[in-house]
Amino acid sequence: LISSATKSLRMETEILEKKLQDAQMKLAEKDGDKEKEIQSLKRLISELEFQLTMEKSNNESFLDKLRKEIKHKSEELEKLTQEKTQLIHSLSRVQEENSLLQDTVRRECEERFELTAALGRAREQVLELRRLSGALP
Q: Which ranges of the sequence are coiled-coil (predicted)?
């Protein structure tokens, strides 16, 4: 009976040991799979971090270019604004000059008209005097 029980216990122990070994092998496989997955995820994280770093670098470079372009455009706009202001002042002076010249031309035309009228009257007087002097001895 003891021998049979011992044999039964040994068999049960062997079965349990085999189950334990199988469980340990499965656990080791799972650990290996998990380790592989961890390594794969670490590589993926490294790649993504590298991509993120590259994107940040590209974005910073792009932003620097945009800032330089904005600065250049602002300077250009300031220069054009100053030129516009100068042109407006020049236009104002030219308009004043033009107004003065138009006024001068108007006055000279009036004087010319008056002189032409006076000349016409003087001619008439000369002709009248000639006619009168021709009638007199």
A: 63-97
First CA to last CA distance, the chain? 196
Place of tokens 């330089």: 68
Task: Report if residue 116 sits inside a domain.
Answer: no
The answer to whether residue 55 sits within a structural domain is: yes
Q: Could you give the C-alpha distances from 90 to 5, 38, 76, 87, 93, in angstroms and in order?
A: 122, 76, 21, 5, 5
d(CA 134, CA 136): 5
User: What is the C-alpha separation between 82 and 104, in angstroms, rounded?
Assistant: 33
pLDDT in tens, 76-126: 999 999 999 999 999 999 999 999 999 999 999 999 999 999 999 999 999
Measured distance CA(1)–CA(37) in Å, rounded:
52
Own/partner long-range contacts of 104-109 (Cβ < 8 Å, ≥24 apart):
none
Asked whether residue 132 is domain-assigned, the answer is no
For residue 12, give its domain range: 1-100
What's the CA gap between 107 and 85, in Å, rounded? 33
